[in-house]
Amino acid sequence: MQNTKINIKIDTKEFLNSDGTLNRQEVLYKSGLYAGECYSKEGLDKLKEEDESKTMKRINSALNNSHHSVIGHPHLTLNIENIPKILAMVLNNQQEYNTSEKSLRYTPVESIDGSIITEREVKLYNKWLKIFESLITKTYPNLGANKIHKLAQENARYLVTVFTPTKMIYTTSLRQLNYLVAWMQRYINEADLHDNFALTLCYYMEQFIKEIKKLNCLDERLLTNDKNKSLMLFSQNIENREEYFGDVYCCNYEGSLAMLAQAHRSRPIRHEMQRLEEKKYYVPLIIKGNQALEEEWNADIELVKQYFPQGELVLINERGNYENFIEKCKERLCTNAQLEVMVQTKKTLEKYLKALEEKNHYLAAELAKYNQGARCTFPDYNCLNPCQFAEGVNLTRHI
């Protein structure tokens, strides 16, 4: 196991002790004040004048009776360093959060002492970075050197492990943070001991839990998981789920781990993944159709398959309602969106529209308005920064 260590600091000064740990008593006190609003005649200002012991009695009663919702009011902002990309995905897939994550477009890929990234990955990344820069420059010469470099990085990263360490600022409630730990503990307890992916993820989950505990963020009364919930990202038997498109929708498709990291940022929509028994890998569109480059790409990604590259395809189940999907289209059908997630969103839109038309659904005509190109063509979207990129607007770009 590698020596990379997750490091977490609390950035919320309001609840911070002098040693950097959480003043959990203060969080619970504030939650107790808010809990009193449910039946107080005079409101919050009067509650602030009551004896603190009364406030704490109220919140302790709520905690002991699993009435945890009021603990969701105070939020904590965590500064997290060296978190593996896949664990960041676990956090971001839970929907209740705000996050600012270091983009891999701006993160150098390098193998240093203690890093989980191997020299082989770095060598292949740099090799394909140059290939992609050359191809993009020839195909889209007007993009500019900086844009071309970023797009080349975005494609080359498919070769690098999904355990790549990154940085993120993550904000959520104390309640949710404890729930996350409880769900991670369940994942660890149920992990397949013969699955290196799961075992590596468990290793980092244990690090995460250790850091959260060290910061005094855990309360046993919030860790009970009495509803027997688990992490939303991982699922089984997705292939048996029936697709449906109407006022609500459910669909299955294969996508890379890198694409999934983009897709599930559409928080109202639920995304679940299942790793494939027979491994397959994403081929960037800029080399699709070039037999020699495709063969070289597939041979190279096979060389790093044991490191779980971000280009590994997984089976994804996506569920939401019609309004959720339109919101996703307004985020992902754009020149600036990652190409793979843009293409998949377009495919899902076309499948959705076809299903509605076949059953003469009342939403068919409405959805058709969103099938004319990128979001700048939508009847209810105002683009503040037009790209003037024809292949981007008509959704035919290859980068």
CATH topology of the largest domain: Alpha-Beta Plaits
Q: What would CATH call the class of the largest domain? A: Alpha Beta
Low-confidence stretches: none
Number of separate domains: 2
Question: Approximately how much beta-strand content do the residues carry?
Answer: 5-15%
The first-to-last residue Cα distance is: 35 Å
Computed structural class: alpha+beta
Major sheet: arrangement of strands: 1-2-4-3
Q: In this structure, how is the largest beta sheet organized? A: 4 strands, antiparallel
Reported CATH architecture of the largest domain:
2-Layer Sandwich
Fraction of residues in helix: 40-55%
Radius of gyration: 23 Å
How does the overall form come out from the CA principal axes? globular
Structure description:
The protein is of the alpha+beta class and 399 residues long. It folds into two domains: 7-101 and 164-222, 2-Layer Sandwich (Gyrase A, domain 2), CATH 3.30.1360; 238-393, Alpha-Beta Plaits. It is 41% helix and 13% strand. The chain has a four-stranded antiparallel sheet. Strands 5-6-8-7 form a four-stranded antiparallel sheet. A hairpin with a 2-residue loop joins β5 and β6 (248-256). α5 crosses α6. It starts with 6 loop residues before the first strand and ends in a 6-residue tail after the last helix.
